[in-house]
Amino acid sequence: MTRRAAIEGKPVGSDAYVALEARYGHFTAMQVRDRRTRGLDLHLERLESANLELFGVALDRAAVLGSIRAVLGDDVRDASVRVYVVESGGRPLVMATAAPPFHLSGRPQSVKPVVYQRYLPHIKQAAGFPQAHLIRQVARDGFDEALLTTEDGVISEGAITNLGGFAGGRLIWPDAPMLRGITMGLLQRMDVPQERRPLKVAALPELDQVFLCNSRGVVPVSRVGDVELRQDGELMARVIGFYDAIAGDPLD
């Protein structure tokens, strides 16, 4: 499929999103399969809270869902969809884009720690230059993802992912300012003991399994910097199996 865009529920030219997605605002990203997406309630809650904080008004949920349906049209069942709410003419404008679906390979990922903290990290911001730049920089060094940390190595999140890990049967999440991803929120519904705690890069080799998650899915982390990490296939199979079993919410 070719990239598409819809604004306020109406299809527009395929390049119309370029001028808008760099504006002041926020967004959410989802994978659509058979016109369904996991965690639609979490996506809408994310957009709602960010809209109130950035624009001081309630989210137009009808415009969100209408734009998703419009960008999918009658023919697209699988896609990578983004919903933006950006400032235009002094008011928030809802826009959706659709691109070919992303299929996660499941290949273990490598991460490079980078000292960087996002401004308003709890909001998924429309203009993402810093993260895009960091990913390009670490990719040149042979890494898949940048791991954002403080000066003393406390982990917050990845550039476009959340990081989690297992220790003694407990699911551990970093206790730091971050964007709480939709997939992270879904995995927090797993029936396993979970906790948030300050997590440093130096502590990752002590965990039984480290993974990354975002709208594209869940993948193991095999290396942080030059340090190889433990791999537990059974743990990863359990996490991925839980995620894969989550039913998608209908978009029609």
TrEMBL record:
<dbReference type="InterPro" id="IPR001544">
    <property type="entry name" value="Aminotrans_IV"/>
</dbReference>
<dbReference type="GO" id="GO:0008483">
    <property type="term" value="F:transaminase activity"/>
</dbReference>
<keyword id="KW-0032">Aminotransferase</keyword>
<dbReference type="Pfam" id="PF01063">
    <property type="entry name" value="Aminotran_4"/>
</dbReference>
<keyword id="KW-0808">Transferase</keyword>
<dbReference type="InterPro" id="IPR043132">
    <property type="entry name" value="BCAT-like_C"/>
</dbReference>
<protein>
    <submittedName>
        <fullName>Branched-subunit amino acid aminotransferase/4-amino-4-deoxychorismate lyase</fullName>
    </submittedName>
</protein>
<dbReference type="InterPro" id="IPR036038">
    <property type="entry name" value="Aminotransferase-like"/>
</dbReference>
<dbReference type="GO" id="GO:0016829">
    <property type="term" value="F:lyase activity"/>
</dbReference>
<keyword id="KW-0456">Lyase</keyword>
